[in-house]
Amino acid sequence: MTITINFNTLLLTIIVIASVIALIYLILALRKIIVLIDNINTTLKDNKTNLDNTIKNLNGISENVKDISDVAVETTAEAIVMKDGIINQLDTIKDIINIIIGVFSKK
Q1: pLDDT at 40 over 60
Q2: Cα–Cα dist 3/10, whole Å
Q3: Are 92 and 100 in contact (CB under 8 A)?
Q4: Within a 13 Å sphere around the CA of 37, how many CA atoms are in the beta-carbon half?
Q5: CA separation (Å) from 65 to 25, 56, 72?
Q6: Buried b (16+ CB within 10 A) or exposed e, 30-62
Q7: Which stretches are transmembrane (predicted)?
Q8: How many angstroms separate the Cα of 79 from the Cα of each of 25, 68, 73, 88?
Q9: For residue 103, what are the contacts with CB-CB under 8 A and spacing of at least 6?
């Protein structure tokens, strides 16, 4: 008994099997996407009032952030000025110490 396999039939069988596997994966992916969309929809419904309040208060929130950043910039500028003042005072102290060392080392 001999079995002859036609190349076209073999190729068609492989294509059909691959198509069925791809269709199964597509159905599974669509199911996961539908579950994800349902979860997002539920989350949005549950938090609708919170989101509405946040959007209404967004202008005030941005003004608060601007005020905080302005204070941070001013504080940074003051710190830089203080650092420069401290460096100048340390340079003066260093010069005084060098003068004292110079006076005592000459004897």
Answers
A1: yes
A2: 13
A3: no
A4: 6
A5: 47, 16, 10
A6: eeeeeeeeeeeeeeeeeeeeeeeeeeeeeeeee
A7: 6-28
A8: 61, 16, 10, 14
A9: none
Please give the structure tokens belonging to residue 19. Answer: 């198509």
Tokens for 8, please give them: 């076209």
Q: Match 């905080």 to its residue by tokens.
A: 68
**pTM of this structure:** 0.46
CA 10 to chain centre: 52
Joined together, the tokens standing for residue 101 give 């060392």
- At 31, list the tokens: 């199911």
86 φ/ψ sector (left φ>0, alpha ψ -120 to 50, else beta): alpha
The separation between CA 20 and the C-alpha centre of its own chain, rounded to angstroms, equals 40
Taking Cα atoms as reference points, which of 17, 18, 20 lies closest to residue 28? 20
CA 79 from centre of chain: 29
